[in-house]
Amino acid sequence: MGKLNVQELFSRILPLVLVLSLLSPVSLQAAEEEGRESSNEEMAAAVKEQLKLAARGPKLHADLRDLEGNKEVAVIVHLSQKPVALEEGIKASKDQAFSLEQEKNVKAKIEAEQTQVKAGLQEKNISYEETYSYSTVMNGFAATVKAGDLEEMLEVPGIRFIEPDHAVQAMADGATQAAEPQAAKGADPIPALLGVDKLWAEGFEGQGVKVAVLDTGIDPDHPEFKGVYKGGKNFVKFSAVYTKPRPDDDPSETKPSERPANMPEFNEWGMPFATFHGTHVSGTIAAIGANPFGFKGMAPKVELYAYRVMGAYGNGQVSWVLAGIEEAAEQDMDVLNLSLGFYNTSESESMAYAVNNATLAGTTSVLAAGNFGPYRTSVGSPATSRLGIGVGNTTLPEERLSATINATVGDYKLTKSANLMATTFNEDPAEQLTGEYELISIPEAGQKKDYEGIDVNGKVAVVALGRIIPEEKIRVAKAQGAVAVLLHNVRRGEGSPGPSGLFIGDSFDFIPAFDLSQEDGQALRTQLSNNKGTIKFSGFKTAKTKGDEVHFSSSRGPSTPNFDIKPDVVAPGTRVLSSKPMYKSDNPNADYSKAYTRDSGTSMAAPHVTGIAALLKQAHPDWTPFDIKVALSNTGKKLDKAQFDVFAQGAGRVQAHLAAHPEALAYGQDQAVQNSTGTLVDNPKGTVTFGNHSLKEKNLSVAKKILVKDITGKGGDYKTTVEVTKTFGDAKVTVDKPAFTLAGEQELTVTLKASKNTEQLFEAEVLGYIHLTKGKTTISLPFAANLSGVPIVEMQGFALSEPDLSPNGDGVKDQGTLDFILTGDLIRYDLALFDLGAAFGEGVSNYEEVGYIVEGTELKKGKHSLPIDGQYYPWNGDPKKRIPDGVYALQFSGETTPDVQFPFVYGSALPFFVKTTKPVISGSVTDATATGKVTDRYLDFNKVLKAYGLDFDLNDKLHATYIVTQNGQAGEPVPFNLEQDGSFSVPVQADGAIETITVVVTDAAGNKGEAVIYKK
Fold first, then answer.
1. For 424, what's the count of Cα atoms within 13 Å in the CB-facing half-sphere?
2. How far apart are CA 425 and CA 512, in angstroms?
């Protein structure tokens, strides 16, 4: 089983769980420096140096090494010639124009190299199927190749780097929610909060600015896009996931009519087959306000383009995204929105590089940071792009409800105040829940099938959290007729064992949902197993949140390996109201009056910044992407700095009007590795990155430059101050000019100094802000430095001693161990069990987290062997039980001590088989040939695994022999192979002295079956 298969599988089955990065930072080393170029004012020398790769030759990504065989692998191949956008940036750095003739020449070189490389692959008899080729934002192509050919591909001149074509996902927190047309209760508060309304009043609504949304597509019939939507393209490849192909110029959302009968309407995470995400994102940017309740996009008069790079269930591929970025750059888009990505903190990833090159070509890219927070180093690619604008998610002021529940079950009584995590839109739950209701306990996950035979009509359902999103549990309970639902926490839930703390909001699809603790929920369940229960609700109370906080799920920086501050800025992204699709082509009578919904995540934060970037571009047509990024950063509102450090909020929450009207801009002078060729470019930005350093050997002194530019011509006297929010030892940050008079431009030198310290300490970092003030005007740049040299805790050698278990008490493979080495201590860990054999429909595999094997509160660094005895604890708190026969995956997750850089470790082992049944054999002997069939669960297991690309040779699991008995003596077992369907046809002895022929089949779990197929 190849390593890539395991990683691909877990990227599919655990998309909402933090997993270790599948891409390591690409190690790019410089061999020589080729001369410094003079800078122009706008880009501050967008390209200063060109560095070439060291003479170490081309590289294969770590996840692709040591793969063998004919299995097809999706990859992205990088070539050596610089792409068009990078060459354009190099010309701009020299203050030179990039003519059409020069562009043609660059493209000709790229085409020639690509042709030469493909000819080289042919000469080596390396077959491949190309999906996309790229020349503008990167030079290379995406293709499927045989795993065994990867190493040989590196021998083809021109190939510099090969990486996996990973899956990407929409950066929203959950599934679509119901229409909420009046939820804004008057005017939408966001434009006023961000100062966008002031720009509208000045006539800036995005006129003439081209914005491309790379997402799941758009509903082109939505009235919110009338007049602003200008078309787009589809980059999602047709496959058996869809009923029919679609033309390249159709970027509409994935429709219900495109779903084959064997594909589920909702996947295991509650995400619908028919997509909605791109329409929601596009509405936040460009909705024209065609509604009666005050909702309008940030830039309602832009020219809006949609590039469909994610398909069914909101999933896509890196190669599709690259094709979309390429198209956007070629079409001279002003601003891109990418509310997508995957968990990978590396700046050295192809989407991040493509964004870098698009930036050099003049396109501003706004990128969702990811929803993997609140932990350090949880930012996802492409938001790791050093030249793009990564955006985190902040909250809005909201009303929260609570009430007292009064439950009686037999002699047991529960009276407790509980928060409502969800309510019905435009209804008062106190008026909805005025009587006494019967309580009903729902088993398992609270899915539709779990209600079979249970009457909840007019009653209150008790449902456990976990396995599927709570929104879906609430919708299902309502569809079954429940008036309310008590959602109780589970052992591995958020905030467990207390209430989850989740707040979902209001929706037409919801009934009131109360948030209970694990203890209270399980107590109700236990009592309801033997008694009837009733419940009343009273004492409803309302509280209002203050908003302007970084949402706990918002991904934090730094990015790796440069300790860069990400996200760059933050914006509202929690329960944001926007447009939703109605799929008019499927339903000509679709009613768009309620085609609005709320959603949450950095996906919803990024389009606010995208719309504002479009307004800035309209207000300042000559501004480059670097100017726009710095203006947003310099003027960001600093949120609670004690609660949210620079890696949580970046430069702060965006303030559109201030960003559009700066008196001066302050650019942190930095450099970034531009792409896989090792090119280094200047990166003027709104932050100061001192990077990673160690104090073990000597004292430290690092200097960085800030270039302050007068924008209005007013100049003036400025004061500089340093605000340190976290320090270490005697580390000190100073600015060489405590005060200065700005006349045109002014360069400042910021210096970090710290004394030698031989210890490696996690807390050895320096964070804070540099402020430049003139009267009421303040320009701020956050800074960060890592002085610790502390490594990330890793899990090594993760393996099962017995991947095939037969816990039937016969002493053969009844138990095994999970073996690994920890390089640091854990303060919490568990080993979860996933069933890979569930199914939504014929031919469609599903995976369910059914429980856990073991959990604990402490695990020291060193070697470990966790026992696996064939039993597990169900996720809903039921007693321990035996693992049923089946095919599973194991996922280890652990939380490290606070003194490390990243607080989690993960490991996965799959497939893991549990099997207690014996092989069943039938057959006969005719004309000296034994024929027959073996029926066994491993045949069923193989069908399950085939859907994941993990199927095995049956003879690796079933070991068949036959034994000939003659003259009362049994001969030695003779091994033979089975066909993959379990059948066999084997020549045997044709001797009249033979008395019996017995076929014996022993499976990998130690179960033995035998049958006499010939008897004299």
1. 16
2. 10
Distance CA 509, CA 479 (A): 9
Question: DSSP secondary-structure letter at 919?
Answer: P
Question: Residue 511 and residue 446: Cα distance in Å, rounded?
Answer: 14
Residue 553 has what DSSP assignment? T
Dihedral angle, C-alpha 98, 100, 105, 110, nearest 10 °:
90
* Spatial CA neighbour of 988 closest among 1001, 1003, 1002, 973: 973
Q: Looking at 343-411, which runs of residues are DSSP E strands? A: 364-368, 389-394, 399-409
Q: What pLDDT shows up at residue 55?
A: 30
Which residues face 693 on adjacent strands?
A: none
Distance CA 344, CA 367 (A): 14
Tokens of 276: 């909605």
DSSP state for residue 833 in the 8-state scheme: E
Q: What's the confidence (pLDDT) of residue 673?
A: 64
Q: Map 135-177 to HEC letters.
A: CCCCCEEEEEEEHHHHHHHCCCCCEEEEEECCEEEECCCCCCC
Q: By the 8 A CB rule, do 686 and 669 touch?
A: no
Burial 481-517 (b: 16+ CB within 10 A, else e): ebbbbbbbbbbbbeebbebbebbbbbbbbbbbbbbbb
pTM of the model: 0.73
Structure tokens at 114: 């690509």
> In 3-state terms, what secondary structure has residue 793?
coil
Phi-psi region of 965 (alpha: psi -120 to 50; beta: other; left: phi over 0): beta
The two tokens of residue 594 are 């309620």
SS (H, E, C) 599-642: ECCHHHHHHHHHHHHHHHHHHCCCCCHHHHHHHHHHCCECCCCC
Taking CA atoms, 883 is separated from 9, 807, 851, in Å, by 21, 9, 10
Instruction: Please tell me the predicted confidence (pLDDT) of residue 48.
Output: 32
How many angstroms separate the CA atoms of 84 and 72, rounded?
30
- pLDDT value, residue 250: 97
Helix (H) or strand (E) segment spanning residue 465? none
Res 804: pLDDT: 96
Contact 569, 389 (CB under 8 A): yes
- Cα gap 981→967, rounded to integer Å: 34
Other CB atoms within 10 Å distance of the CB of residue 436 = 12
Give the pLDDT score at 790: 65
Distance CA 815, CA 861 (A): 24
Q: Give the span between the Cα atoms of 202 and 617, in whole angstroms.
A: 14
Neighbours of 149 (CB within 10 A): 17
Contacts of 118 (CB under 8 A, 6+ apart): none
Q: Which tokens in the block code for residue 561?
A: 């390996």
User: Taking the chain (1016 residues) in consecutive chunks of 10 residues, what is each chunk's mean pLDDT?
Assistant: 30 27 20 28 30 46 80 89 81 72 88 92 92 89 92 90 80 45 50 96 97 97 98 93 93 96 78 93 97 92 97 91 94 96 81 91 95 86 93 92 96 95 86 95 90 96 87 92 95 78 82 95 94 96 91 90 92 92 95 88 96 98 96 97 96 98 94 64 87 88 96 94 94 96 96 88 87 95 88 76 94 93 88 77 56 91 92 83 93 80 77 96 94 96 79 92 92 94 91 90 96 93
Does residue 333 contact residue 363 with C-beta atoms inside 8 Å? yes
Task: Write out the H or E segment, with its range, that includes residue 821.
Answer: strand 816-822
CA 566 to chain centroid: 16
Give the Cα separation of 50 and 305 in Å (integer): 34
Which residue(s) pair with 169 in the sheet?
A: 315, 341
The Cα–Cα gap between 500 and 521 comes to: 12
* Of the candidates 372, 381, 224, 368, the residue with the CA atom closest to the CA atom of residue 289: 224
* Cα Rg of the chain, angstroms: 31
Q: What Å distances lie between residue 731 and 31, 179, 251, 699, 724, CA to CA?
A: 33, 53, 53, 10, 10
DSSP state of 458: T
